[in-house]
Design a protein that fits this description.
This protein folds into two domains: about 140 residues, Alpha-Beta Complex (Aspartate Aminotransferase, domain 1); about 250 residues, 3-Layer(aba) Sandwich (Aspartate Aminotransferase, domain 2). It contains eleven helices and 15 strands. It has a seven-stranded mixed sheet with strand order 2-8-7-6-5-3-4, with helices on both faces. Strand 3, helix 5 and strand 4 form a beta-alpha-beta unit. The longest helix is centred in the C-terminal third of the chain and has 27 residues. The structure holds pyridoxal-5'-phosphate (PLP). The site of pyridoxal-5'-phosphate has 14 residues, from helix 4.
Length: about 400
């Protein structure tokens, strides 16, 4: 009889979003007239921008003509897109990343989940708590529940930023701006991590899916703004939240040419080479029309539309922050990130707060404990609903006597 990968049996059930959906359904059934506002969604709500739609139409037409039809493309992504990315996201900002260090993909979820394919099983892996669950679950799928996983506890005491480990760690996942806490890392803070990784010969897996939401110029948008990061870090970026590609699917991963790992015998091997090998073997590229759409994000019109889209969500974030601060609640994030992480008032636990917010304000959010045990007593609100709904939700919360 064949055997399964038993590591999958060690994964916690992902009850979070199904439990939320069930509770909301039950509440709606019992209160048919209730106007429920969802501030729990991690998906975007604005449609794709005109520049992106125009590029999609154009490239769809190309696919219907013999001379311009495209079959399989390069597994790493078309050069037109990799050049646009390297030029705009890095070189224009003074960061030395070349098109051949960029791998276009269909989502950061896939890439942050798949990166473990090129990493050895003996590594000690550090993951923050609370966390975007993909890092933890895919690590568990790969190595199982072993003593090789370290949770870096984040709390209000450390401003929901992890401390540098004081024991051996080979790989660390960092995500800034952070989902779920909305926190960002200053240049000084990020520099400490890069110095630590270079000294320890450790690897940083840096998820920058929300970099476009940073408006404070002093906050790094890429880990490669820090000297030496190209020798210790892989960066993941996505078009999902900045350009509304959650349904279209496009992202990219930067694996610098200088980044090296070692074999058990201490021989240095290029991670770029390994990721290229992995992608060419297991991935046949992102759709041509989707890559043309992503290219359009880098046109002057596309950049302007992206800024407007991000600005719309960040205006919502500001509304949420202002409303909750007025209420005297403790919160993190929402300034350079679309997530607001609040301490449940009155020492309520995350699920009690969820139930009461739903029952008494008809507003839905996400219990912090769903992102890890360190999230207990906290709650995540997102800026991705419409302006009107966000205003209404905050008005209800402001009037709420809990
Ligand atoms: N990384 C983080 C931190 C996220 O929050 C998300 C989506 O919510 C992703 C990656 C996934 O992005 P993509 O849509 O590119 O797969």
């Amino acid at each position: 009889m064949f055997q399964i990968n038993e590591n999958y049996l060690q994964l916690g059930e992902s009850y979070l979003f199904s439990t939320i959906a069930r509770k909301v359904d039950q509440f709606s059934a019992a209160h048919p007239g209730a106007d429920i506002i969802r501030l729990g969604i991690g998906d975007v709500t604005l449609p794709l921008s005109p520049a992106v739609i125009e590029a999609l139409h154009r490239s769809v037409d190309e696919m219907g003509v013999k001379e311009s039809f495209r079959g399989y493309g390069p597994e790493q992504g078309y050069l037109f897109l990799r050049e646009a990315i390297a030029g705009t996201d890095f070189q224009k900002r003074g960061i030395d990343i070349a098109p051949d260090e960029i791998f276009v993909s269909d989502g950061s979820k896939s890439d942050t989940g798949n990166i473990g394919d090129i990493l050895g099983e003996g590594n000690v892996v550090a993951i923050t708590d609370p966390v975007y669950p993909v890092y933890l679950d895919t690590t568990l799928m790969r190595i199982g529940k072993t003593n090789k996983i370290r949770l870096l506890r984040c709390s209000d005491e450390n401003g929901f930023l992890p401390e540098i480990p004081d024991e051996r760690v080979d790989i660390v996942y960092l995500c800034y701006p952070n989902n779920p806490t909305g926190t960002v890392m200053t240049r000084e803070e990020l520099k400490k991590w890069v110095m630590w990784a270079l000294e320890q010969k450790s690897l940083i897996l840096f998820d920058a899916a929300y970099e476009a939401f940073i408006s404070d110029e002093t906050i790094p948008r890429s880990i490669y703004e820090i000297d030496g990061a190209n020798r210790c870090a892989i960066e993941f970026r996505s078009f999902s939240k900045n350009a509304g590609f959650t349904g279209l699917r496009c992202s990219y991963t930067v694996v610098p040419q200088e980044l090296k790992g070692t074999t058990a015998n201490g021989k240095e091997v290029s991670l770029h080479h390994l990721w290229n090998r992995r992608q060419s073997t297991k991935f046949n590229g992102t759709a041509y029309i989707v890559q043309r759409a992503a290219e359009a994000v880098y046109s002057p019109q596309g950049q302007q539309e992206m800024r407007e889209m991000v600005g719309y969500y960040m205006h919502n974030a500001q509304l949420i922050r202002d409303g909750l601060i007025e209420k005297g609640w403790t919160l993190f994030g929402g300034e350079n990130a679309p997530y607001i992480w609040l301490k449940c008032p009155g020492d309520m636990d995350s699920w009690t707060f969820f139930d009461r917010l739903l029952a008494e304000c008809h507003v839905v959010g996400t219990p912090g404990v769903g992102f890890g045990s360190a999230g207990e007593g906290y709650f995540r609100l997102t800026a991705f609903n419409s302006y009107e709904k966000t205003v209404e939700a905050i008005e209800r919360i402001k009037k709420w006597e809990y």
